[in-house]
């Protein structure tokens, strides 16, 4: 039986390297890959489709879309991104509208998105087949180092 690996962030360094490990010659015959993307029509995403990756539209802010994308998965590689949203003008505007600095808003956004990923993976329909869940993120270096590293 071919198992299903769902990858969040396939167009980035982490998700892309996970996909490459399964697609590099000789490609795995035990696994097929599904990539979650906000926009399946983007050229960077289409490049993965050309390599045999199934593309599914989902949004890290929408738990039902994640649950649907995770359904049938035997393994999930999930990740969140603090830095990408930090430089998004819409995210910066949302932070200012809330009266917080963009860094605070992005940290909260990353936490919420990580929670959304975990909640979707924990749903009964996903749990019916899920064997492994790998979550990748960066911790708050300043807080974890007691303030020693503040510019990480």
Task: Explain what you see.
This protein has 152 residues and is an alpha/beta fold. It has one domain: 3-Layer(aba) Sandwich (Rossmann fold), CATH 3.40.50.720. The protein is built from eight helices and five strands. A five-stranded parallel β-sheet has the order 3-2-1-4-5, with helices on both faces. It is globular. The N and C termini lie far apart (44 Å). The model has no long low-confidence stretch (mean pLDDT 93).
Annotate the secondary structure layout:
Elements: E1 3-8, H1 13-23, E2 31-37, H2 43-49, E3 54-57, H3 63-70, E4 75-79, H4 83-86, H5 89-98, H6 102-121, H7 124-127, E5 132-136, H8 141-144
Parallel strand pairs: 1-2, 1-4, 2-3, 4-5
In short:
This protein has helices spanning 13-23, 43-49, 63-70, 83-86, 89-98, 102-121, 124-127, 141-144; strands at residues 3-8, 31-37, 54-57, 75-79, 132-136. It has 152 residues and is of the alpha/beta class.
Main-sheet strand order equals 3-2-1-4-5
Fraction of residues in β-strands: 15-25%
Shape: globular
Quickly give the CATH architecture: 3-Layer(aba) Sandwich
- How would you state the average pLDDT, rounded? 93
